[in-house]
Amino acid sequence: MVDPSALTPPYDRSLASALAARGVEVELLTSRFLHGEVPDAPGCQVTESFYRRSGARGGSAPLRLPFKAIEHLGDLARFSKTIGTDQDLVHYQWLTAPGFDRHFLPSFRPRVMTAHHLPEGGRAFRGVVELLSGMDRTIARPEATRDRLVAAGLDPDRVAVSPHGAFDYLTRVEPLALPAPLSATAPNRPVVLFFGLIRPNKGLDLLVEAMAQIPEAELWIVGKSKLPEGELKELAARADALPGGSRLVSRFVEEGEIRSVMERADVLVLPYRSRDESGVLHAGLAFGKAMVVTDLGGPGELAGRTDAVVAVPPEDPAALALAIRDLVEHEDTRMELERRAAALAESELSWDRVAEQTIAVYEEAIAEARR
Fold first, then answer.
1. Which segments of the chain does DSSP mark as H helices, in order?
2. What confidence tens digit (pLDDT) does each residue in 191-226 have?
């Protein structure tokens, strides 16, 4: 299993461990994650073989990215030399520069790749389609991703759909104290949570606008910002002016803090403008949270299929406000959603179920390669 830039350590390690529990011998080839803790990967070998020199400089080191670019081709060449002797299959989770890397991948087959997040369109999307066309199988999440890939020309028989598992490992870490800005919230005050990287496509501005209509609840914003500093300050000022108030933690939080934040929040909101899939959604499911999501991509698909989350139209703060207020004001409705979310995390979206489906894809690819 290959994730050179360690873009999704929780996903990689959860899946690798679930595969190992089902008897698959897994080695995860990746790099040092520079932004905090990563979960354990019991039963499998983790080799940090990519970007060792630039990674040793730390995530905020000056010129780290140019050093990483210099290392990239050499690391890819070294990886190519190690593949082909002891493996039955290579599963790519990510490639650092897909359009470039596809020309330098080892020729070893079969190879599988997961399509985590597709570019909106243009040259980047065409490059990803060309990369995936060279794979023996593609694993898509959600169904809409598969539809886009098939419409772009991929063989439908070579594109499988397998869900994202619920991040239940977070429910077992040792809880830590709430970050200082959050710990001052009154114990009985309703909390609406926005969690994860703060980017334009995440729609935090829409949530701030919606929360102006819910004075009884406080908004928590927890996650590292990828916005320009001035834009974040303006958004934070708008949030501070909300009738119910807000609290901001603009950094990566530790796993124990994630547990404490999730357990304290009453409603988790994903007001995304665009998203194939969401790790935040699957953390929320693991904690059995009542959630409001935008009706697009994986979150919207989950809402339509399971009734475990509430979906609202994209770019609609008024609908967002109505859905959040309903959950804040009606405990019975909120508790029913919590029950459904927890049940889904333990059944259809358990990592064991995801591993079972992934192994079926592996077996198809290996059987075809041996014919």
1. 9-21, 52-56, 64-82, 98-101, 122-133, 143-151, 180-183, 204-211, 229-240, 255-264, 279-286, 297-306, 317-329, 331-346, 351-370
2. 999 999 999 999 999 999 999 999 999 999 999 999
Rounded Cα gap, residues 232 and 315, in angstroms: 19
The domains of the chain are located at 9-165+350-370, 168-346
- Whether this prediction's pTM lies above 0.85 is answered by yes
Per-residue tokens: 217: 């609840």
CA atoms within 13 A on the CB side of 370: 8
CA angle, 39 then 40 then 41, to 5°: 120
Name all contacts of 63-69 with Cβ < 8 Å and 24+ positions apart: none
State which fold the 168-346 domain adopts.
Rossmann fold (3.40.50)
Residue 107's Cβ-side half-sphere holds a number of Cα atoms within 13 Å equal to: 0
> Shortest CA distance to 182 belongs to which of 251, 243, 241, 231?
251
Residues 6+ positions from 253 with CB-CB distance below 8 Å: 36, 179, 222, 223, 261
String of DSSP letters for 283-308:
HHHHTT-EEEEESSHHHHHHHHHHSS
Helix (H) or strand (E) holding 112: strand 111-115
Q: Which option is the CATH number for 9-165+350-370: 3.40.630.30, 2.40.110.10, 3.40.50.2000, 2.60.270.50?
A: 3.40.50.2000
The single-letter DSSP state of residue 179 is P
At residue 191, the 3 state secondary structure works out as: strand
Q: Contact 159/146 with Cβ under 8 angstroms?
A: yes
Residue-wise pLDDT for 293-340, tens only, equals 999 988 999 998 889 999 999 999 999 999 999 999 999 999 999 999
Rounded CA-CA distance 310/324 in Å is 9
